[in-house]
Specification:
By secondary structure, this protein is an alpha/beta fold. The chain has 14 helices and 15 strands. This is Phosphoribosylaminoimidazolecarboxamide formyltransferase/IMP cyclohydrolase.
């Protein structure tokens, strides 16, 4: 199959639409179920590249949850502790496979953004992962293969219309890539940059200590940024992205946005939030929305009289600003990556509030000294990679 006709492009009025191989070769994918659309394939192909690189960099199964051509979450397949299993709503599934753990982490980091995601998996999809996917609101999945039981589970989703794509893991794209904007063709060499331990060798701060676990987290951060719409920054802890700020025009707004997401991820683990008395039978999406409101500044939207009764058995106490700050101060050893240099030290000041200890960025700002000074103020270790990772 050399081409595949699509229902429409980015929007229903954009017709005709298709994907095809310009050189006449076969498409490296098979659609096993459903009818993926234009944006589905953009998410699928970007996500596939991301998880493939994560697998090569870490040796672990990887998964990502994409929305609107940027990852909402990305992770490798490390085991889940009891708290993470609970906040990701998988504590009823028992012990999960490494690939299922990777997707639970990728989906669970920012569940509000992941609602209706497109999933990319580095490994053959197993039954554990398929069962997890089946009960989430999602548009589709791409993987190098599917176990027979897993495929049958996925084919039951969306009344048989769930998008399931199989990609050839041996496919190698051409070294030059092209796209058209306003009828004009752009061409560039593919970004084949390999991100490994050596990427973080130039540590410019007084604290030179970046342990192996932090290097893995920094690699996850940078590989995630490589496929995130710029400007972007990414907070990572324990083998998973916990806050991604994508597509912001200002670097500090990226850092704040991603930092708030990282804070929310940590606040969800506070006993006060874990113990919220939800009504029986409430849907996961409604729980996610209620938690997001409860831990935010607009908590009265879910706690007001006449409203809280729709969600909770009894009215929860307000999660005060002081209580939240006390809990956030316990978040430590977070890694932070940036796809371009930090122009001001305010980015590091904001990162510190979310427990960042390790930083990787290209460097090259006229204010590098200021950024380094702020890192030294908080005993952070920061590596200059010398390489920008813009993605558009």
């Amino acid at each position: 199959m050399n081409e595949l006709e699509l229902k429409y492009g980015c929007n229903p009025n954009q017709k005709p639409s298709r994907i095809y191989m310009e050189d006449g070769s076969e498409l490296p994918i098979k659609v096993l179920c459903g009818r993926p659309g234009y944006i589905n394939f953009l998410d699928a192909f970007n996500g596939w590249q991301l998880v493939s690189e994560l697998k090569k960099a870490t040796g672990l199964p990887a998964a990502t949850s994409f929305k609107h051509v940027s990852p909402a979450g990305a992770a490798v397949g490390l085991p889940l502790d009891e708290t993470l299993a609970k906040i990701y709503w998988v504590d009823d599934l028992g012990e999960l496979s490494p690939l299922a753990c990777a997707y639970a982490r990728a989906r669970g980091a920012d569940r509000m953004s992941s609602f209706g995601d497109f999933i990319s998996l580095s490994d053959v999809c197993d039954a554990d992962t398929a069962r997890l996917i089946k009960r989430e609101v999602s548009d589709g999945v791409i993987a190098p293969g599917y176990e027979p039981e897993a495929l049958e589970i996925l084919k039951q989703k969306k009344k048989g219309n769930y998008n399931v794509i199989q990609i050839d893991p041996d496919y190698v794209p051409a070294p030059l890539e092209r796209k058209e904007v306003y009828g004009i063709t752009f061409e560039q060499g593919r970004n084949e940059l390999v991100i490994d331990d050596e990427f973080f060798a130039n540590v410019v701060t007084e604290n030179k200590e970046i342990p192996e676990s932090a290097k893995i987290d920094l690699a996850i951060s940078m590989i995630t940024l490589k496929y995130t719409q710029s400007n972007s920054v990414c907070y990572v802890k324990g083998g998973q992205a916990i806050g991604i700020g994508a597509g912001q025009q200002s670097r500090i707004h990226c850092t704040r946005l991603a930092g708030q997401k990282a804070d929310n991820w940590w606040l969800r683990q506070c006993p006060k939030v874990l113990g919220l008395p939800f009504r029986d039978g409430i849907k996961r999406a409604d729980r996610d929305n209620a938690i997001d409101l409860y831990i935010g500044d607009e908590y009265m939207d879910v706690l007001a009289d006449g409203v809280w009764e729709n969600t909770f058995k009894v009215k929860p106490e307000v999660f005060t600003r002081e209580e939240k700050r006390e809990w956030l101060d316990k978040l430590t050893d977070v890694a932070l990556g940036s796809d371009a240099f930090f122009p001001f030290g305010d980015n590091i000041e904001r990162a510190h509030k979310s427990g960042v200890k390790y930083v990787a960025q290209p460097g090259g700002s006229v204010r590098d000294d200021n950024v380094i000074d702020v890192c030294n103020k908080y005993q952070m270790a920061m590596a200059f990679t010398g390489l920008r990772l813009f993605h558009h």
